[in-house]
Design a protein that fits this description.
The chain is an alpha+beta fold. The chain has one domain: HIT-like (HIT family, subunit A, 2-Layer Sandwich). It contains 2 helices and 5 strands; from the N terminus they run αβββαββ. It has a 5-stranded antiparallel beta sheet, covered by helices on one side. The longest helix is centred in the middle third of the chain and has 17 residues. The radius of gyration is 13 Å and the shape is globular. The mean pLDDT is 97. The structure holds 2'-deoxyguanosine-5'-monophosphate.
Length: 112
């Protein structure tokens, strides 16, 4: 069965899309944790980083290169945080790999 994010990629479920290219889609999180909170999702339905393989190396690199461009496009310059919740025990709730791009407020360290 298609994941929620596959349905967003297929435009079966609406989303506030901020970036799209041939390999990924980025859209605003429905439950934002910061003024800028975007989910960057590969179009390939990889479950999470633990499920990625060497075949995904270029795709994963692409996501890391696109993320700062999206942050800049959304006005947070180089002050943003990238987060991947990998596995249910780390808070993953949608099992289609995604990077959270968060910005627009101060962030504490260590994270909660
Ligand atoms: P995670 O917990 O890391 O798997 O993050 C999943 C995120 O997906 C969570 O921050 C909320 C977001 N989300 C869940 N359902 C929807 C939806 O239908 N639309 C959008 N835009 N975001 C969603």
């Amino acid at each position: 069965m298609a994941t929620l994010f596959e349905k967003i990629i297929a435009r079966e479920i609406p989303a506030d899309i901020v970036h799209e290219d041939e390999r990924c889609l980025a859209f605003r999180d429905i439950n934002p944790q910061a003024p800028v909170h975007v989910l960057l999702v590969p179009k390939k339905p990889i479950v999470n980083l633990s499920d990625a393989s060497q075949d995904d190396r270029d795709l994963l690199g692409h996501l890391l290169l696109v993320a700062p461009r999206i942050a800049a496009q959304l006005g947070v310059g180089d002050a943003f945080r990238l987060n991947v919740n990998n596995g249910a025990g780390a808070g993953q709730s949608v099992f289609h790999l995604h990077l959270h791009i968060l910005g627009g407020r101060p962030f504490a360290w260590p994270p909660g």
